[in-house]
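REVIEWER CHECKLIST
Item 1: Sequence provided? yes
Item 2: Single chain? yes
Item 3: Sequence as submitted:
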Amino acid sequence: MSTSMRRIVIAVAAPALIFSLASCGAGDSGTSADASPSKGNDMTVGLLLPETANTRYDDFDYPIFKRKVAELTRGQGKVDYANAEADASKQAGQMQKMIDSKVDIIVLDAVDSHEIAGMVQKAKDAGIPVIAYDRLAEGPIDAYISFDNELVGEVQGRSLLEGMGSGTDTSSKIVMMNGSPTDPNARQFKEGALAQLNGKVTIAKSYDTKDWKPENALANMTQAINAIGKDNIAGVYAANDGMAGAVIQALKNAGVTDLPPVTGQDAELAAVQRIITGEQYMSVYKSYPAEAETAAEMAVAKVQGKDIQFDALTRDKVSSPTHKDIPAQLVPVVALTKDNIKETVIEDGIYKVSDICTGKYRDACAEVGLK
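Item 4: Structure as written out by the authors:
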């Protein structure tokens, strides 16, 4: 299957892909030559997540991961959790603490994928495997679990063009509010989006947003509005929902009442509500249960001495700047619009209708069939 065809298939795949050890065949894997000594269910799994500005990590990734580890280890496995709050130095200290306490494995979502490489090597030297989660860290990573990040950008770019309408051409000016330059995912999102946007619109302003922080996106968007003119912006590519909210606020602050289409990512609750009211055009829904549960399965299998390199849990291969052909699992994504909220975040149990359709959102919810 060609790469482009594979991306099309992934883009339309159902979002709720939850993998189990039994269904993926992890229980039948052999033991690799360099696997750490196998253990039973009594294990400690270190989980390092990067930030709190994006609500998904504390609200979804951590609790789902913790629950799955407990399930797979019959309640005997523990999760040692730390969030770096977007501070790369703090995360290095958290990782050192886990190495010192001799956790059995570390699942790492790096704040800075390059800067953390030395700590990944330290873990390797201490005999502790490291699985890269959501962002591909540099260094001797044992496996990687994330979403097809270039596809995320492609879905965002296509959706933005759809939202801008049939009259869109190279005279149409857009702003690109990309993610943090220290996050390799942000680069892939941007590359995917540019593959759809180049030659079809004019990218009047483009920003790499430090630490993904909404306040930085707000300042950047205010600058873009002043440079381009509030009535001359036909659309905004915002790489995630936190920044999308800031972009929309900047437009409102400038007196824009007829908002241009704005993209997002992560299906945050506030973004879903903005999509229902029409303030935000779309988000990218990524099944956090699929990602977090698969990461837990990888971690438990690795600690128990199974060779996940040749397992159905890692059907893909990726390369970082330091290492090639890292065993990986890339989870599908789907464009979230007001037309498929029920079939995505509600059906997957991420939100209930009552979570979304509060107070001022009730009438808008009724209009899209949520009640």
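Item 5: Key structural point noted by reviewer: Residues 362 and 371 are 8 Å apart (CA to CA).
Item 6: Recommendation: ____
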